[in-house]
TrEMBL record:
InterPro entries: Acyl_transf_WS/DGAT, O-acyltransferase_WSD1-like, O-acyltransferase_WSD1_C, O-acyltransferase_WSD1_N. It comes from the Bacteria. This is Diacylglycerol O-acyltransferase. Belongs to the long-chain O-acyltransferase family. Keywords: Acyltransferase, Glycerol metabolism, Lipid biosynthesis, Lipid metabolism, Transferase. Residues 5-269 form the O-acyltransferase WSD1-like N-terminal domain. GO terms for cellular component: plasma membrane. Residues 313-455 form the O-acyltransferase WSD1 C-terminal domain. Transmembrane segments: none annotated. One of its GO terms (molecular function) is diacylglycerol O-acyltransferase activity. GO terms for biological process: biological process involved in interaction with host; glycerol metabolic process; response to hypoxia; response to nitric oxide; triglyceride biosynthetic process. NCBIfam families: acyl_WS_DGAT.
């Protein structure tokens, strides 16, 4: 089966060659006391369910002479054992060792000649735990019609749900001559394709990212925000391929208490906690902080419903008042800003996505990153993605998932991204930072706990 990449897919595909790999990561920690989830079992589960995410068996073929956008083609030599890999920590493996492994795996680019995803079963964790780390290219997952593989490998019970048998036969791969003819035909019958070709040739990949994504998220919020001057910040610096990864785990009930006490949203409470942590992080670096100091966050955020699920992804810029010493006033500023943006926000359809069975956050994070790519590089200091998940235990091959941490990619000149996912009564933070620009990313996670205590004290 052959399908041309969308303009945004093609832009993300081109960005992978730069210092900013744009794969979406997901780290799941599982209880595996009886050893029921081993490598062979994971292979079996994924292989039986790949038909639910057909793009995971497709690779990208470029069109000769760049006459058109690349196309998706079935990989006739698809080898699932290449994509699902086995790794182990020296027993008893610590969480810190796991996070260092995730950072190294996140730093590695995907093989562009094969389907753009990898999955690692990490064994050897202490307390009879194992981990599954998955990374999928942003061109592979659009969060709506093309979903992340985490959607299909998790179950709501220990007994895996039955799936239909799938006999996959790869389609015939087109020849270079056929791709050239198709591209030339499209240029003749579709005038817009010629304009796009010129733009891609003259402006390069960066121009393509901006133009294709802006068409997706054009709204009043974008126009208004572009006119603002982004506050200077150590969060904006040239970055390398190398990463650091750190996590934090908080109780969802605590955010509910803050919400009830101050009549705000859970999202507002989360942003207030992040703001407090970033304030103290700036102090720890000796950065000048005054009462007017702020950091501008791009917040492609999944909107919570009463059931703890998301109905849409909303994208807006919000100034985090890191200079304000009073946590209650910080929360008030954030709540006011998000209320204003809620009346004019840009939304990206996700209703189809959240109705599907499985675990949606990774796909929602992918959708959020796509939304974020429509903003100018200097329009914000920090990317924060938030995707609510189910509040009941989930399982992989009978092994219960204990924790789930998102790994959002870094955009150009963005030294830190913060991803959040709520699951089974907790809120999980995954902090992905550049190895050189953010050597103290673990300091931010420690300060998240302090900020949460400060907000709870204010609530009491």
């Amino acid at each position: 089966m052959v399908a041309r990449l969308t303009p945004q897919d093609a832009a993300f595909y081109g960005v992978e060659a730069s210092s900013s790999p744009v794969h979406i990561g997901s780290l799941a920690i599982l209880q595996n006391s009886d050893g029921r989830l081993d490598y062979e079992r994971l292979l079996e589960i994924v292989e039986r369910r790949l038909f639910l995410v057909p793009r995971y068996r497709q690779k990208v073929r470029e069109v000769p002479f760049g006459l058109g956008r690349p196309v998706w083609v079935d990989d006739k030599d698809f080898d699932i054992t290449y994509h699902i890999r086995r790794s182990a920590l020296p027993k008893p493996g610590t969480d810190e060792q796991l996070h260092e492994l995730v950072a190294r795996l996140t730093s590695r680019p995907l093989d562009a000649t094969l389907p753009l995803w990898e999955m690692y079963l990490v064994e050897g964790l202490s307390d009879n735990r194992c981990a599954i780390f998955t990374k999928s290219h942003s061109a592979l997952v659009d969060g709506d019609s093309a979903l992340e593989i985490g959607h299909v490998i998790l179950d709501a019970t220990q007994t895996p749900r039955p799936v239909a048998d799938d006999l996959w036969m790869p389609g015939r791969e087109p020849t270079s001559f056929g791709l050239t003819v198709d591209a030339l035909t499209e240029l003749m019958v579709r005038p817009g394709a010629s304009v796009e070709l010129v733009r891609r040739t003259v402006g390069g990949v960066t121009s393509t990212v901006g133009n294709s994504a802006r068409s997706m998220v054009r709204a009043a919020t974008l126009v208004q925000s572009a006119a603002k001057v982004t506050p200077p910040s150590p969060l904006n610096a040239p970055i390398s391929r190398n990463r650091r990864f750190a996590v934090a785990k908080t109780d969802l009930v605590d955010y509910g208490r803050i919400k009830a006490r101050f009549d705000c949203s859970i999202n507002d409470a989360i942003l207030a906690v992040v703001t407090g942590a970033l304030r103290n992080w700036l102090f720890s670096r000796g950065e000048p902080v005054t009462e007017s100091t702020s950091l501008r966050a791009l917040v492609p955020m999944s909107v919570y419903t009463g059931e703890g699920e998301a109905s849409e992804v909303s994208s807006f810029l919000v100034d985090l008042p890191v200079g304000e010493p009073n946590p209650v006033i910080r929360l008030s500023h954030i709540a006011h800003a998000t209320e204003v943006h809620s009346r004019q926000r840009t939304t990206v359809r996700a209703r189809t996505l959240v109705r599907l069975s499985g675990f949606a956050p990774a796909s929602l994070h992918a959708l959020s990153v796509r939304t974020a790519s429509g903003y100018a590089q200097r329009a914000f200091n920090l990317l924060i993605t938030n995707a609510p998940g189910p509040q009941v235990p989930m399982f992989v091959g009978g092994a219960r998932m204990l924790e789930m941490f998102p790994v959002s990619p870094l955009l150009k000149n963005q030294a830190l991204s913060i991803g959040l996912t709520s699951y089974d009564g907790n809120v999980y933070y995954g902090l992905n930072g550049d190895r050189d620009a953010m050597p103290d990313v673990d300091v931010v996670t420690a300060l998240l706990y302090e900020s949460m205590e400060e907000m709870l004290d204010a609530s009491a």
